[in-house]
Design a protein that fits this description.
Length: 139
């Protein structure tokens, strides 16, 4: 089992660092680029939402990310101490009719659920925890 843990500020400027860390982790574990790219897309969405909505003031909180590769699965566990929020309870927004008439946003978690094999939310004490899991794809 391979594991990597890092912490970032809940700030937009920190997200590139996470995505770079995922690429480094994937390369070190010889994981296919396609798997790494899918995880990065899902993580970018989850982390962006935490940055935008979890904390009352920008740049005040932290986000912990742990990557694990085991049993042919890549897993990312994302934890924050922000406002309690289960993204999996969101209803799918209406996506019919002209784009100009649709409300912006709201599709991200559905996108993440399509990319990943598993998305799990839990509230652990004062922390939100989202766990993303994808089976390693062969190239």
């Amino acid at each position: 089992m391979a594991r990597s843990h890092f912490q970032i500020l809940a700030a937009q400027r920190e997200l590139a660092r996470v995505l770079g860390s995922v690429e480094t982790f994937c390369a070190a574990n010889k994981l296919p680029e396609a798997t790494c790219n899918l995880m990065n897309l899902a993580l970018d969405e989850v982390l962006s939402n935490i940055v935008k909505y979890a904390y009352d003031s920008p740049d005040t909180g932290t986000i912990d990310v742990e990557l694990t590769y085991s049993n042919n699965e890549l897993m990312a566990s994302v934890e924050d101490r922000g406002i309690a929020f289960d993204p999996l309870t969101l209803q799918m927004p209406a996506n019919t009719g002209p784009l100009r008439n649709r409300k912006e946003g709201g599709l991200g978690i559905f996108f993440v659920k399509r990319l990943m094999d598993s998305v799990v939310y839990e509230r652990v004490g004062d922390r939100n925890k989202v766990t993303l899991t994808i089976k390693v794809l062969s190239e």
